[in-house]
Amino acid sequence: MSVSESFGMFASKRCSIYLRRLHLKFGNKCKNINFDNGLLLDNTQLKNIYLIIGKNVSNARKKHRMSQLDLALSIGHKSATVISKAEIGREGKHFNIDQLYKIACVLDMPIEYFFTELTYDLDNI
Question: For residue 63, how far is the Cα from the chain centroid?
Fold first, then answer.
């Protein structure tokens, strides 16, 4: 097995564990996830996950006293529009993994924070 295959299996397992935790935490919002036939998420479930990620980005940005424009510029965008829309899920916009990686680097925090529940303690990062 190659390194990339091993990493893919590891990442897939971590994703599965995370989604199971989301299911336990949010119950009815994630009730249609079918773990027996693979990870099947409907649009509503994806939107809920993207909203959690957006809220976590917003909380982390504010904790670091950074404006949306400053964050946007620091990850290579020319305006705050992408950050603004992705934080609140406006027009179906959301952060992609590349953006989350860059944001985590700029804010000097683990990327995992963006995927955690909103009660994550920012003071202990």
Answer: 17
